[in-house]
Structure formats: C-alpha cells, structure tokens
Amino acid sequence: MKVLYNSERGASENEGHPPIGNVEGIVDDAGEGDSCPLPKSNRNTDHTHIPSDWVVDVSTTYVGILPNDARKKAKLEEQSNTQTDYFSVAYLCFLIVATRGYNKYLRFHSAKLKRLLGPNYRSVLGVAQSCGLIKWKQKPTKYDKGDCSKKHNQIMVIGRKGSWSQVKIEEPFTINRIYQYRLSRVSTLDIEVLRKEYYSLTTSRLDLAGFDEFNLALSCGDCLPNRCGFGNRVHCLVTYSLTKKERKQLRYIYALMEPTCEVDITSSQPYFLFQCVSNPQLLQFAIKDTEERSKLVDVFKANPWSAELKMVYGEALNEGEFYGKFLSNMLEGCCEGLWLEWLRQKLKREKKPKDKIMPRLRRDRIKKVFMYLMFGGGTKLLRMIQKNRIYGPFAYLILQLRKVKMDRSGRDFYGVKKFRPRKIIALVLQRIEAEFIHRVYTSSGISWGILIHDSVLCLEKEQQMVVEAFNRVSKKMGINMPVLKY
Predict the structure, then answer these.
(1) 314 and 236, same structural domain?
(2) Are residues 247 and 283 in the same domain?
(3) Which long-range contacts does 383-391 make (Cβ < 8 Å, 24+ apart)?
(4) CB count in 10 Å sphere of residue 136
(5) Residue 421 burial class via C-beta count within 10 angstroms: exposed 0-12, middle 13-18, buried 19 and up
(6) 342: Cβ–Cβ under 8 A, 6 or more apart, which residues?
(7) Greatest Cα-to-Cα distance within the chain, rounded to the nearest angstrom
(8) Of 354, 380, 406, which residue is a domain's last?
(9) Per-residue pLDDT tens digits for 382-419
(10) Residue 430: which residues within 8 A CB-CB, separation 6 or more?
(11) Do 165 and 243 belong together in one domain?
(12) Per residue in 129-156, pLDDT tens?
C-alpha cells in the first residue's frame, strides 16, 4: 500500500496513487485483509520547508501497553476470547495513557469503541476491568430514555509510571481495527491544515520526563488532528493533553536544540466581535448560506455601536487589556459585585468537576464571564448592562443576535451537536477565528508548527515568519492587524 498526500502539483513520482483527504484517497494495493497503516512523515525529505508533495512511509509501528504484573497479564490472556481482543485492550490502554496519563478518565463514544474493540466491546471492557487493568463507568446522557440507551463511556487505566510496559502489535486483525479507528478520525475538510498539523505532530517530541507514551503516540502516528463541527477549530493530542507551560517544551525532532515559542492573538474572540461590528461581511467566513447569513448581517447593521463605545472597546484591544480594562470596568460599573456571585452560582451548576472550580485570578474570572455571555448565558447581566449609556449597545447587540432564528437543517450546521440559537455568537466568532488562523498557519512557510486554536506554536527563529503571515492575512481579509503576544 502506498499513500500520497494531496497536492495541486500532482504526483509525478507516484502516478496512479490518489491523494489522501477522504476514504477514497487511500488505496490498498496489498489486497483485502492486509494492514493499512495511516501515513507517517517521510524522514528522507529536505526539511528546510514542508514539501507540498511527499510520499509517506507505510512502515507504521503499532504499539500497546500491558501491565508488568504477570498475574494480571495471564488473566487477561486467559479470559479474552481472541488474541485480537487481547491486543485491542493493550492499544486502548496505550491511547488513554498517552492522552490522559494513568488514573485519569478519558471519554469514548460507543461507535469508536466498537471500531476498536469490536461489536462486543462491553464484554471486552468487562474482562479488562475484572483483570484490574482499567476502571470503566457509563454515565447516561440526556438522550438516555426508555428503550434508547445512550451513555458516555469513561475509561481509566490503573497504574503508575514503570508499572506497565510497551508491547508491539503485529496481530493482523488488531492492526485492521486500529486502522479503522484512525480512519474514523480523518476529516475531509480543511485538508491542507490537517496535513500540515499531522506532519508537525509526527515530527515532534516533548522534552519532559513522564511523557514516554505521549511521545510514542506522536512518533507512531496516533495523533491524528481533527476538526470540530461547531467552530471549525483543529484539535489534536497536544491541545487535549498539554498545558501551555508543557507545550513550551515541545521540540521539532530535526532541530531538537532550537527553542520554540507560541504566537497568540490577544483577546481573540473580543477582537473578532469588534471586527464583525465594523465589517459584518466577515460573517461570510462563518455562515456560507447567503439567506441565513443575511439575517445576522441585518442585526449587526440595525444595532450599530456608538462612537464612544467603539473608542473605549478599541483602545482596550489595542493595549492588550480587554478583560482587565473594558470588561472589568463594564461589569463593575453596571453590575457591581453581582457578576461575581452570578459566576459563582453558574460554576456550581456545571456538570464536570473541573468546570466547577472558581478561577484564582481576577482576569480569568472576567474571561470566564465573557465566555458565558458568548455561549448564551448571563441574560440577567446583559439586561443590567443594557441600561448603561456607554456599554448598553454592546449588551443589546448580543441579546438581539440570540433572537435570530437560523435554519439548523442547512449545510452550515451539519455535524454541529447541541446547537441552540443563543450559541450563534460563539459559533460565528470561532469560525471566523478558525478561518483566519488557518490561513496564517498554511501561508506562513514555517518548517514546523502546531496550530493551537488561536495561536501557532513554532520555532523561535521562525517567529517573524508567523507574524508576517498574520499581517498578510489581516490585509487580505480586510481587518485590522490583531495584537499578538509571544
């Protein structure tokens, strides 16, 4: 089997092999039942730039982890129906530890578990749990009613560093399951972005102790980036698993001594909201359907901001102090101490334990309030702000946008889960942000870089190339250059 990444220039060196980017783009000329590994980077390429054409290596290594405890391992082998189930459990444990570490739950959709463990995935998980390898629990979703069973699967690997060992997977049916699992994560949208992100991930290494499984997942290709349907953002193993402090230790394997830096948009979503107010035509990057987009454009045009509000808002953005200056003054001036109590009550109602924690820093608390306002919360706060002479138009515009009735059956909402009209502002801002940062990322010309929502992680020596790409894309999209931090 050979795989060729998509390119406008064609495939002169490997004629007959179509581009990757959808299921049809992967050709298996080894015959039915043969393993079909996903692409890895070509290590023999000139790495002074990312080539637009390159043939990927098919010698992917498939690995899993199993406990060092011989008793547990023997029990798992004895109780597993087949060798395929045995090694599938090993691979599942490897994925969990690489993503979350030991003794931390990772959520899986049932469809993904069926691909990875087979149709009898519940019994396979039950065996692994009885052998002391994992803890598995199912939590009902809001769709879990009557005869319709809909539950979240949360799985945790029991152990600590040094108590598990790597095992190479060569069993063909397990390899096929792994391939199908990986293939299910391949998106057919934003191929250029995902291709570049995948190359950078597979040529990355985290220079920290205790991340052996994480680094192994990167080098083995178990790090396929995906694109979310809501805001078109690209997510990957790095965004799921690492903190900002840990990301600074990521290195390009062909330049391990080169330091990295993260070029980030300051106050990204407030910035794009201001750009939409100034130029509603930016909505074309979020909503493709002309009729649906016009509904939102009309609201922006019918509810303009005053010159005073634009000046105060714009100054805060330019100084890089939107949350500490504009939003803080607005909340304190219009809601006094009520906003803090509202936030405390809002966090108590969150379902996830980590989301219930009150941020320690004041700036982070204010940022949290802005997030809730964009995602449809804080109506009480907005009505209080609406009465203020300066800040009133800000609140009124948000309230009016929430009332817009969008056709959720259209192409713009395909794949968007749990969409509600009140979330339209968050959806629009994230999609415009994604379009902007994707253009920056693909046009920057950097040799290595990882896209992280509204920022680009790159080599420090190529930082200026990213900054220049921000400037070019801003001019091309007709918006002001954002304030960057790095």
Answers:
(1) no
(2) yes
(3) 384/334, 384/335, 384/338, 385/330, 385/334, 385/335, 387/334, 388/330, 388/333, 388/334, 390/306, 390/308, 390/309, 390/312, 391/309, 391/330, 391/333, 391/334
(4) 17
(5) middle
(6) 335, 369, 378, 380, 381
(7) 74
(8) 406
(9) 999 999 999 999 999 999 999 998 887 778 887 787 77
(10) 230, 231, 232, 233, 269
(11) no
(12) 999 999 999 887 766 665 556 778 999 9
34 located within any domain: no
Determine phi and psi for 472, rounding to 5 degrees.
-65, -45
Structure-token match 């250029």, residue found: 192
Which residue is listed with tokens 């890089």? 320
Give percent of the chain above pLDDT 90: 57
Tell me which residue range forms the domain holding 230: 188-289+421-486
12 phi/psi in degrees, rounded to 5: -65, -35
The gap between the terminal CA atoms of the chain, to the nearest Å, is: 42
Q: Do 373 and 331 contact (CB within 8 A), yes or no?
A: no
Residue 389 shares a structural domain with residue 298: yes
Range name among 10-14, 104-108, 250-254 with the lowest pLDDT average: 10-14
Paired tokens of 81? 């129906």
> Model pTM?
0.81
Does one domain contain both 226 and 297? no
CA-to-CA separations, 248 to 59, 159, 214, in angstroms, rounded: 30, 27, 15
